[in-house]
Amino acid sequence: MEKFEVHILGCGSAKPTTRHFPASQVVNVRDKLFMIDCGEGAQIQFCKSRLKFSRLQSIFISHLHADHCLGLIGLVSTLNLLGRTAQLHVYLPKGGGEVFGPVIHYFNWEMTFEVIFHEFDDKVSEVIYEDRSLTVTTLPLEHRMPCCGFRFDEKPTPRHILREMIDAYEIPLSEINRIKNGADYTLADGRVIANERLTTPSDPPRSYAYCSDTRYMPALAAKLQGVNLLYHEATFCEDDAQKATARYHSTASQAAQVAKEAGVGKLIIGHYSSRYDDESQLLCEASAVFEPTILARENLCVKIE
Length: 305
Fold this sequence. Notes:
This protein has helices at 42-48, 66-69, 71-81, 96-107, 163-169, 173-180, 195-198, 241-246, 252-262, 280-289; strands at 4-10, 24-29, 32-38, 56-60, 88-93, 115-120, 127-130, 134-140, 148-154, 160-161, 185-186, 192-193, 199-200, 207-211, 229-233, 266-270, 293-295, 301-303. The chain is α/β, with parallel strands linked by helices. It has two domains: 4-157 and 203-303, Ribonuclease Z/Hydroxyacylglutathione hydrolase-like (Metallo-beta-lactamase, Chain A); 160-200, no CATH class.
């Protein structure tokens, strides 16, 4: 099975602490790296997670609060120092390119590569990135400013052709892709060998969803149905539910409720308020609603099987 994993670089909220870095993650799909949010120190955590800058394809910024995007300037500067030549695509809410474009060029007089900004509409859910193996779709959220989460979906892969069938029927190389894509195989004497005999089913497509800063959104579950792994912010415990609503954030149990109603495989909670010295209460509250919940922590790597 091809690689599909999530690296947590930072899982704290806006107020700095010595325990957590601001929000940032990297999704590794077949050794292509996609960064989600880029808080301060993201490039340091990138190195600690033993990820390779050369494999960074694109960056997705959920919203323009400082704890989710200020690391972008330093990261681009480092990539420039390393002599990157490949374009870097940055996806962010409307107006983000006007903010970051001039600042990036101010600190990098001679750019070795081009930074291309793609601005998205935070009011609609749409595919903003697609390649041969993956799509990334925005998930509109409810925060104090324009904000979207992101859903990463693998595309279906061809069926697996059995090596012993290739040898037994002397199948030529020119026919293999057709068979992988579902075709039967006709022998020289006219006999037809059914595709089900020649192949085994492909691996089920996997998915990951990232829900950044947001007030509790019951309707969000419909857009998250069946994802293998969900990250959902859980800034507050239930005792502070009123603060969560007033500040457009979620509690741990609310995050778990979304996961439960969406039927996801596993939930990661993060974006912890600095008021908590111990996140065990957050985990306890979320697990009571949705048992397969884990706490985000710096440099945690979660594989999606």
